[in-house]
Amino acid sequence: MLLRRLLLVMTALCAPLLVLAASPAQANDASHISSRSGGAYMRDCPHVPAFGATDCAGQQFLSNGTPVEMVCYVDSEAPYASRSPRWFWVRQLDGAPTPGAEGYVWSDLVTDQTMTPACTNQPDDYVQQFQQAAVTLDAGAPAPYGHYYNVTVHPAQVGEDRYVTVTCADSQDPSGFYSYQLYVGETDTVSSSVCYSGVQGWHEVFIDDGSFSSNVVTW
Question: What is the CATH code for 135-218?
Fold first, then answer.
């Protein structure tokens, strides 16, 4: 029976890992595990369990470089204060320890991120979108504090010849601390000297009140 992943997974009962019978996708456009500790645990719930708890334990350790498919995301509980609360439901790809196995991995431990829908209770919604993301974020030049947000908006996804509202957010102001208008033409539009943040934690941008969101960057 196909696992239904809920958008708000805050109950004590957590869904088990699912191994699909179908052959998993190839890893050419995959996301990958990346951590200073050498890897990340794939869990059956989107949070780290309290000390001594038996629920939501690390079901499998994935070493750095393990290829995964980002299926969907939920915003739950951050493992550390002032860090991103986002977790990805991922599927291991060919080259991983258990191709086809699925579970939650904290977003900060996934690199090469792709545009991914929110998790719902409708399995048919979980379609990996390998097309270019609508907006991408990089740490820009040094700013008076921290770094400038180096924002790239892609017209193929958001539409061309129009103004969009860009909102900069970080772990201190997750709903956004500054918004501005940006004109998007026929080619990729880059904004690299508008907002900046000296907050040590995660950083993200939103387009048009959250219609599109970027990858999460830490500095």
Answer: 2.60.40
